[in-house]
Design brief:
Layout (H helix, E strand, L loop, with lengths): L32 H4 L3 E12 L2 E3 L7 E6 L4 E7 L9 H9 L1 E11 L2 E9 L8 E9 L2 E5 L3 E2 L7 E10 L2
Antiparallel strand pairs: 1-2, 1-3, 1-10, 3-4, 4-5, 5-6, 6-7, 7-8, 8-10, 9-10
Length: 169
């Protein structure tokens, strides 16, 4: 396995999110062969928050989710923690909200980063901002990392997200 990806991005993929970014104009779909490797439907394998050198499976050891990246430059992502239970009360619905994330927007590729300008999200504060992800594709596996940033989950510490996807066949 290759070493972790470099940490130069300015946004995060987390629940709850840490957002640092700005709106941009007209994202353009990627056209080079490296970017072409991203296109497709990806099934979530693992979703970790890394604090210091300690990875934490905040969505459980077997989270569920999909990432869809189209040739036209549309990204759709949804992830959910394992063992969620249905609920109709306020506390139950809040727990469901905290145990998932979902968003969509136009994406573009810059080197080994793909950047999504979010136009709809489970978290209104993501709408209109960029989500930057470092990526690496190895065969049918996609490795994604966000940049280290001050943690809102672990005050006074820095964390980042490490997400692994398998290409759906």
């Amino acid at each position: 396995m290759k070493p972790p990806l470099p940490a130069t991005a300015k946004s995060d993929i987390a629940a709850p999110p840490l957002i640092v970014g700005a709106a941009i104009s007209s994202p353009v779909p990627a056209a080079d062969s490296d970017a072409d490797a991203l296109i497709g439907t990806w099934k979530l394998v693992s979703w970790q928050v890394v604090v210091g050198n300690e990875p934490r499976n905040l969505f459980g050891a077997n989270p569920r989710g999909y990432l869809i990246l189209t040739r036209e430059g549309r990204a759709v992502a949804i992830t959910a923690a394992e063992n969620r239970t249905a609920g109709t009360g306020d506390a139950e619905r809040a727990a469901l909200h905290k145990s998932m994330l979902a968003y969509s927007g136009k994406y573009r590729v810059e080197g080994h980063d793909f950047i999504t300008t979010v136009d709809v999200s489970w978290n209104e504060s993501w709408n209109g901002i960029e989500q930057r992800r470092h990526y690496r594709v190895e065969g049918d596996r996609l490795f994604i990392e966000s940049a280290p940033a001050p943690s809102i989950l672990f005050p006074g510490r820095t964390d980042f997200r490490r997400i692994v996807w398998d290409r759906e066949k």
